Amino acid sequence: MEYLPAVEIEYPKGEPVNAAIIWLHGLGADGNDFAPIVPQLDLPAGLGVRFIFPHAPSIPVTINNGFVMPAWYDIKQLDVDRHVDTDQLKQSASWVHDLIDREIARGVPSERIIVAGFSQGGAVSFEAALTYPKTLAGIMALSTYFATADSIEICPIQNTIPIMIGHGSLDPVVAEALGRKSVATLQNLGLTPSILCTPWSMRYVPRRSLISGRG
Q1: Which one of 6, 33, 58, 178 has the lowest number of neighbouring Cβ atoms within 10 Å?
Q2: Is 79 within the bounds of a domain?
């Protein structure tokens, strides 16, 4: 099987891997975008984590005049409803499922795997994690929106999955209102997300702030 190409980091070095985080980048970036955050996380001793930062394929993006760039799916209109190509988004989610399956085959229990994503990657993380048929450790969705809220078929085993949504009130691309709308939608679906809103844009703060809430 072919998997998405990715940056992989095992941290701390020398620790046996017993957990994994699959972390998806945003539009126009690649897997290197969040890799520098790993040494800043101050992981506790004894916790060996494999970080997987996959690269999205390059496709034409309508809102950028058809320019070809790394993207998890096409965005057709940049409005409050975020008209996106849901087929492409779900295909990206299936690729994430493959990465989860590979981590399980490598010996990481599914309940110790987190799916995380920023912006476009966050939208894919919702779809990928909530439709996966085994218990996962959680979802971390940053500066994003729930693009497939109207079509998603949530696997019942994910009804209690921990979900953390982070959003900056000054985000110039994805308004904070979309993050809060995601929270309300997830709650209406019977899930219990938490949200951390910061008085800045998560696009321009040091990456450690995305985790610690400090900037």
Answers
A1: 58
A2: no
